[in-house]
Amino acid sequence: MWVTSLAALVLLATSSSAATSSSADKALSTHASILADNSASLALSLYKNIAKDKNVENILFSPVVVASSLGLVALGGKSSTASQVKNILNAAKVKDEQLHTGLAELLTEVSDPKTRNVTWRISNRLYGPSSVNFMDDFVKSSKKHYNFDHSKINFRDKKSAVNSINEWASKSTDGKLLEVTKDVERTDGVMIINAMFFKPHWDEQFHHKMVDNRGFMVSHSYTVSLQMMHRTGLFDFYDDKSNMLYILSMPLAHKKSSVVFIMPYQVETLERLEKMLTKKQLDTWMGKLQQTAVAVSLPKVSMEISHNLQKNLGELGLTEAVNKSKADLSNISGKKDLYLSDVFHASAMEWDTDGNEIDTSIFGTEKLKTPRLFYADHPFVFLVKDQETKSILFIGRMVRPKGEKMRDEL
Ligand SMILES: *[C@@H]1O[C@H](CO)[C@@H](O)[C@H](O)[C@H]1NC(C)=O
Ligand SMILES: *[C@@H]1O[C@H](CO)[C@@H](O)[C@H](O)[C@H]1NC(C)=O
Ligand SMILES: *[C@@H]1O[C@H](CO)[C@@H](O)[C@H](O)[C@H]1NC(C)=O
């Protein structure tokens, strides 16, 4: 066996023994709130860093899960390897123990399927080289706070090592995420792997029959065929005329979180929009949303996206952990022999019609007359925003959804 799993159990994020169980109205502790807020800043800086790479098309990651993986680095790191984590999270003043309990509390709160009505499976694993000895303390506390399990991997047979990573991810996500990576370049360090499956459950569902085939314009000259789902309803909406953008916020069940779409009027590369993306601008847009009758059409597709964030996190300030000659991760192994060689962050997200029953009483009333159109048939940015903690559960962009290329229509 190339892989020996110390804890083969695949856990739902919410089964974490970490924080106290969340109740609907419980406020986050102060340090968890600070971290929630800061993870929203991390969301935007990391998004922009990923988007710099011209080869990247679709983007999808969970800032709160990235934050908790950074927490794991702090747990295993010493001196500046650990303190850099706090700098990235803007939490230099937060005590170690509060960092760990705060991140755990935040993730437990936002991924609780009972209070949130979401399907969100999160599995985390730290792979170490076959020579590593994980320290008991580290294994215990990383499990407790971050729900990480640990495994050794031998890259002598690289192909089967990569296969075993992908198999683990697939199993952890009920087969929704088939591949985390095709290859592993650096095989001499520890690897963080996040494997997730997320499915939004709308506050009001799309009718499963209101689905048909349409074209999605990846660019002016390239259109793919996919299914789109349609519904009209009252939604928070803002038409930003000066920037030629539509902002639409659609609540998920229990209304504790919502998906915010930001889409240019017309098909264009998202660079112009992405330059505008700051926390301040987001807040401005959120403040201008008004309940409006909107006819919404969204792609009904699944996205499976994997990013190796090692380089990105290095560029955002995690320079020591990722550097073989500098990293001090000796709280993981008891020796200064490890560095963070990869951070595979992979998620499958299923855009589907499922949700709670629609309140049909407003149909046929004045309220829904002359709805605005939100027709998402070209690239857009989206965020899954948590209303209570203000954290960002996911951020991404749909640029090239899965689908057959359509014949050019002339
Ligand atoms: C790292 O380990 C040392 C002792 O081995 C311990 O005192 C320290 O608290 C640990 N650091 C963290 C961040 O857990
Ligand atoms: C969400 O709530 C609906 C009913 O309100 C239920 O049918 C569905 O299973 C719930 N989903 C999750 C993931 O809890
Ligand atoms: C790692 O740190 C060393 C020493 O500061 C530096 O020379 C080297 O460029 C760094 N490596 C990377 C990949 O950044």
Write the layout of secondary structure elements.
Elements: E1 4-5, H1 30-51, E2 59-61, H2 63-76, H3 79-88, H4 96-110, H5 113-116, E3 119-129, H6 136-146, E4 148-153, H7 158-172, E5 190-199, E6 211-219, E7 222-240, E8 245-251, E9 257-264, H8 271-276, H9 279-288, E10 290-299, E11 302-308, H10 310-315, H11 330-333, E12 340-350, E13 372-375, E14 380-386, E15 392-398, E16 404-405
Parallel strand pairs: 3-4, 5-12, 10-13
Antiparallel strand pairs: 1-4, 2-15, 3-5, 6-7, 7-8, 7-10, 7-16, 8-9, 9-14, 11-12, 14-15
Bound molecules: 2-acetamido-2-deoxy-beta-D-glucopyranose (3 copies).
Describe it.
By secondary structure, the protein is α+β, with helices and mostly antiparallel strands. It folds into two domains: 30-111 and 119-199 and 303-350, Antithrombin, subunit I, domain 2 (Antithrombin, Chain I, domain 2); 211-300 and 355-406, Alpha-1-antitrypsin, domain 1 (Roll). Helix content is 29%, strand content 30%. The protein has eleven helices and 16 strands. Strands 2, 6, 7, 8, 9, 10, 13, 14, 15 and 16 form a ten-stranded mixed beta sheet that branches. Strands 1-4-3-5-12-11 form a six-stranded mixed beta sheet, sandwiched between helices. The longest helix has 22 residues, at 30-51. The protein is globular. The termini are far apart. One 2-acetamido-2-deoxy-beta-D-glucopyranose binds at residues 113, 117-119, 201, 253, 356. One 2-acetamido-2-deoxy-beta-D-glucopyranose is lined by residues 75, 78, 82, 96, 331. Belongs to the serpin family. Binds specifically to collagen. Could be involved as a chaperone in the biosynthetic pathway of collagen. One of its GO terms (molecular function) is serine-type endopeptidase inhibitor activity.
